[in-house]
Predict the 3D structure of the following.
Amino acid sequence: MLVSKILNDMKNIKYCIVILGMILAVGCGDFLDEYSQDEIIPSTADDLDQLLVGEAYPIVLPILSYLDLLTDDVESNYPTNSTQYQCLVTGAGVFTWAEDMYERLEENTKTPINTWEYYYARIMGCNVVLDNIDAAIGDVSKKGNVKGQALTMRAYYHFMLVNLFARPYNMEGIDLSKESGIPLMLSSAVKDEAPKRATLEQVYKQIEKDLLEAAPLMKLYGQNNNSFKANDLFTYNLLSRLYLYEEKWEKVIEYADYVIERKPVLLNLSDIVMASGLFNWSFGTKNVFDEASEERIWRYSRNNEFGPFFYLYNAPVAFQASEELKDLYEKDKGGNSADLRLGCYYRSYSQSGSTRIQYGQKAITGTSKGMRVAEAYLNRAEAQIRLYLQNGNDELRKAALKDLNYLRSRRFDTRTELYKDIDKNGEALLEFCLDERRRELSFEEHRWFDLRRNGMPEIVHILTLEAGMPVTFVLEEKSDKYVLPIPRNVSDRNPNLK
């Protein structure tokens, strides 16, 4: 009876959080007239830990499966069957940067994707934990761990939201103190008023505040969390990413240093390639995100974050890695000297013995999204190069090359031939570093944000829904469409978001 009551109470708590999250996301004041808050309050650190797992972490639903459709890493395929055609239609609104992209996603998919409401519901889960953890029953280490996780995840969701639905922090000529960001949700208390956007400055300061408060807690109590939970490396790496977007280069290096010192080794792809030079894509095969991976920090997704756009079982995909992206990977010049990422991170689809999509589909082997140590190396290398270009310190150039060459040495085929270091300087080194970031972190929710913080360049997409009738779409340089539209079902209910 006691177990049944606890489980029932936890379900009621989760239900309340979902409702509260929806209220805060859309600002539906009329609902509050009929709503009375449930009296159930989690009272122990263990209760709040369970709540955190269920309500503050991503669950098996698509959240950002569409994000790479916006980028130059993707091109559309031609439809050869009804399933592929439907997937093309579903993704077409995003692929063409349409103002009604979210409405078209909802219209054409069985599982609607509303990133805005999803993230704010997760933030509400974090807030319920944070509002109750200090008074909860439990030992200091448990409470510190749970609080650190909740602060980290709240910062993470606010960070993702502001980089989707507001202008880039480093945009030329922007006034951070006046530019609209996103609503900051910092309490589980419900107010009978529609949430308003905070400024970009306020949002970024709050993200930093949460992470800096979380960092010592995670360092003390969160180092042994499992890979589906935030840990100290997650918090420090997110700080490094935050400062990268803010162009605070010394701080990027400081927080990336911590991550790399704690977990310096990257997976060596030469150790998992088969004798044939191919990779085994079956579930359970070791990859960069697996539990056994040397570089995995956090993971959250299976193939639902790639399907239906980049992954279809036993069928050609609707959208695939672009030729521009694939050309960035160095091919075998003899002696097994190729960049193995092309064969490990992607897969080809063959039918009747002929390859129709050469390394176009994302390879799925279990969990395939999250956070990896490779990012810390790339964050630090870029920051070192940016500083080197500012002050001419060649030691910074050498340090960046050391990071880049170590990363590449773990990605190239070294079974019969040693990796050869690259040596570049000036702007050519920065360009190489950004290309290396693109090669390494493709389809891991980085490219769109990297395009935003690096000048918002022009992108051209060609969509073919009918044979022989391609249509060209252009995202102009520095276009306002680099800020995604808030879903209409949210903005219609909250005029403060317009």
The two ends are 50 Å apart (CA to CA). DSSP finds 17 helices and eight strands in the chain. Residues 1-19, 26-39, 351-361 have pLDDT under 50 and may be disordered. The first helix runs from residue 2 to 26.
